[in-house]
Design brief:
Elements: H1 8-26, E1 31-32, H2 34-41, H3 45-54, E2 72-73, H4 74-85, E3 91-96, H5 100-107, H6 110-113, E4 116-123, H7 128-131, E5 137-140, H8 144-150, E6 155-158, H9 162-174, E7 179-182, E8 195-198, H10 201-225
Parallel strand pairs: 3-4, 3-6, 4-5, 6-7, 7-8
Antiparallel strand pairs: 1-2
Helix pairs in contact: 1-4, 2-3
This protein binds nicotinamide-adenine-dinucleotide.
Residues 96-102, 122-125, 141, 159-162, 164, 168, 183-185, 199-201 line the site of nicotinamide-adenine-dinucleotide.
Amino acid sequence: MRETTISNTVLERLAIYYRSLKRLEENKVDYISSKELGEILGISSDQIRRDLYDFRMDISYYHDFGVRGRGYPVSYLLKILEKSLGLNNNVEIALIGAGSLGGALISYDEFKKIGLNIKYVFDINFNKAIRDLAGIEFYDVEQIDEILTKNQVKMAIIAVPAKAAQDVADIIVEAGVELILNFAPTYIEVPNNVMVRNEDLSIGLIGLSYYLSNKESELTFVKNLG
Ligand SMILES: NC(=O)c1ccc[n+]([C@@H]2O[C@H](COP(=O)([O-])OP(=O)(O)OC[C@H]3O[C@@H](n4cnc5c(N)ncnc54)[C@H](O)[C@@H]3O)[C@@H](O)[C@H]2O)c1
């Protein structure tokens, strides 16, 4: 797997800052300080400043993240985050597997708003409702190699059943894909030049369940004390 100079945790926080700033921009907020952003996100202002600094963003002019008491211009911060995260390049993404999950991803407009465009969709058996979605190019799996190679697609999402995921991964890697977001609940083997991120919603739920059980044990403890 390819080495990156920035940790996934920092990258995830930068993505969270970006998404939050996008919302602020939509709500016509012009300036934001690290303190205010931190309060919205539940992250310390020190952490935010450190993340931006570690990401080598040219923020020296706004070093204290509080220019004339107003903070950063939201549009400026968005631009540098967009540039650094590679979001302003209108990235074309392939999706393999247009079932329940794939269909939901295709219908989610927010990706396009941030320059991530699920453009090429492949399936062995398209569902008609999904096929009717506008602006998407649908193809049979047989065409994966041809379409991805011709359009030099580097990023793909796998949303097929686990038993088909490795075969799909092999085909898209052969066609030049270097970055894979894998939703199938299985690990896929890829060459060293390819990066895979395994996405699993149950991880988030397990995290929440931990807080729930901790809260309950605390309550039990308090009750027992009473
Ligand atoms: N990571 C998560 O949190 C999460 C959540 C939901 C589902 N999933 C996983 O995502 C995957 C998709 O889930 P779903 O609910 O959309 O399933 P689904 O059955 O609704 O859709 C799967 C789609 O993949 C297609 N398909 C099957 N084999 C294929 C192949 N070889 N090439 C191309 N297309 C193929 C099917 O025709 C179908 O349209 C599953 O592996 C599921 O376990 C993960």
